[in-house]
Amino acid sequence: MSYKEDVLDCGDAGPVRVRVYKGDADFDNPPLVMHLHGGFFLGGSLDEGSRVATQLANAGAVVVSIEYANVGVAPFPASLEFVFKVLDALKGRCAKLAARKSFLFVAGEEAGGNLAAGVALMARDQGMTALGGQILLSPMLDPCLATRSFRNSEATESQCPWTAGWNHYLGFAAKGCHPYATPAHCMRLAGVAPALVITAEDDPTRDESLNYARRLREAGVLVRESILAGPTGWPKDYSDSTNKKRDWEEKIRGDFAAFFHETGALSY
Predict the structure, then answer these.
(1) Alpha carbon 212 to chain centroid distance?
(2) Pairing verdict, β 32-36 and 223-228
């Protein structure tokens, strides 16, 4: 899989460093996906997001993976507002980056999944009807970290990157009440873009991911969910930038492709 390094002028967001991925499949109107790498709100990089971005492109999308780390380390809401500005700029660039009739998606893993879910809520509230779907992989949705999947994980409070990340992102407890910051606590989910939620049996965020998928479905949102059999090594394996092939990559590529077809972004 090849990619192109670029710097996009994203209006109010300024110049943004990106990687643009395109697969071998030739579709007339490939989906355009803004991809947000992980990093637990403490960092991350385009290199660390390359494994997921590559599989999105292999599933038929044109993927714009954005470098948001310098802003991503800022507390809420700075990083979310930045990401939304980039998404809004990409909305006007569909024809240039993909095709005039391409659907626009947002995707992200762990901290990037939080931002993707938050941006989907913002898009609904600000009337951005161009957003065709949200793809959430092991998303960080609930700062309480009190689910059974977390209790069963090996993470402890003293060395848990989720705890450190949430503390940095929220800054103080009051921000945890904002639905854009903690989508798991959002009380109004109707009308958001269709969602693909992917987790794994050994994923610490499994329970909050599945609970969010359930609540979206109950609110009338089109939802596809996928639970990978363990062991996967998630979320650590997301950021592995080596060339070593992972067993789960083919599975998520199939999940991406099925979601693109189900939302009408790709035709058979």
Answers:
(1) 14
(2) unpaired
Q: Class for domain 3-261, per CATH?
A: alpha beta
User: For the chain, what are the domain ranges?
Assistant: 3-261
Which tokens in the block code for residue 249?
């990559």
Tell me which amino acid residue 239 is. Answer: S
Amino acid 93 reads: R
Number of C-beta neighbours around residue 177 at 10 A: 10
| Token output for 29 | 């109107």
Is the omega angle on the peptide bond into residue 31 within 30 degrees of 0, that is, cis?
Answer: no
CA atoms of 224 and 98, how far apart (whole Å): 24
Which residues touch 156 (CB under 8 Å, ≥6 apart)? none
SS3 65: strand
**Is residue 188 classed as helix, strand or coil in its secondary structure?**
coil
| Strand duo 32-36 + 131-137: pairing | unpaired
pLDDT of residue 151: 85
Q: Rounded to an integer, what distance in angstroms lies between the CA atom of residue 219 and that of residue 209?
A: 16
Q: Token pair of 76, please?
A: 């809420």
In sign, the C-alpha dihedral spanning 181, 12, 45, 257 is positive
Angle between helices 111-125 and 161-170 (to 10 degrees): 40
Profile the chain (268 residues) by mean pLDDT over runs of 10 residues.
88 91 88 96 91 96 88 76 95 93 96 97 95 97 91 67 89 78 96 98 95 98 96 84 86 97 85
Per-residue pLDDT at 230 = 87
Q: What is the pTM of this model?
A: 0.95
* Predicted pLDDT of residue 69: 67
User: How far is residue 114's CA from residue 193's CA, in Å, rounded to a whole number?
Assistant: 15
